[in-house]
Design brief:
There is one protein chain. The protein is of the alpha+beta class and 148 residues long. It has 2 domains: 29 residues; 113 residues, Rieske [2Fe-2S] iron-sulphur domain (Rieske Iron-sulfur Protein), CATH 2.102.10. 20% of the residues lie in helices and 33% in strands. The protein has a 4-stranded antiparallel sheet. Strand 10 and strand 11 form a beta hairpin. The longest helix has 23 residues. The chain starts with a helix and ends in a 5-residue tail after the last helix.
Length: 148
């Protein structure tokens, strides 16, 4: 092979090794898979970080994310009002943003019933922390499935 090919391969190797090193050493959390617990779904707390993870259980979408105080927030990936648009949310920094209307919601404030009493708000999905898991009742997921 030519010298230029070897240089290109070397550069690629350095980039790949650097990416693997930095992505594993900066505290990035590996996505936690849901565990079927009969009447509940469990998500290991060790897999929930400050970047929202989106899940889909039989067409019902939700996300979980860790707030700045370390608590875990859960919400349907649909607004109380905008759900008919079926556009969900995206995360930008410490906010979840409605992909339909553009409203911003601080992650620290979500995971509750609509505090504004109407309008756009991340759909409330109750959850509890039990031991090393975030636990979500399947009945609560089913109750919010109309959004999808």
């Amino acid at each position: 092979m030519s010298k230029n090919v070897w240089i290109g391969v070397g550069i690629l190797a350095v980039v790949v090794v650097g990416f693997l090193f930095f992505s594993s050493s900066t505290g990035n959390v590996v996505r936690a898979e849901m565990i079927d617990g009969g009447d509940v779904m469990k998500i290991p707390l060790s897999g929930i970080g400050e970047n929202a993870e989106f899940y889909d259980l039989q067409g019902t979408e939700f996300f979980v994310v860790r707030a700045s105080d370390g608590s875990v927030k859960s919400a349907f990936n649909a607004c109380d009002v905008c759900y008919r648009a079926k556009k969900g949310y995206r995360q930008e920094g410490g906010d979840m943003i409605c992909n339909n209307c553009g409203n911003h919601y601080a992650i620290d404030g979500i995971g509750t019933k609509n505090l504004k009493g109407g309008g756009c708000w991340p759909g409330y999905l109750p959850s509890t922390v039990e031991g090393d898991y975030l636990v979500i009742k399947k009945s609560d997921l089913a109750a919010g499935s109309y959004r999808f």
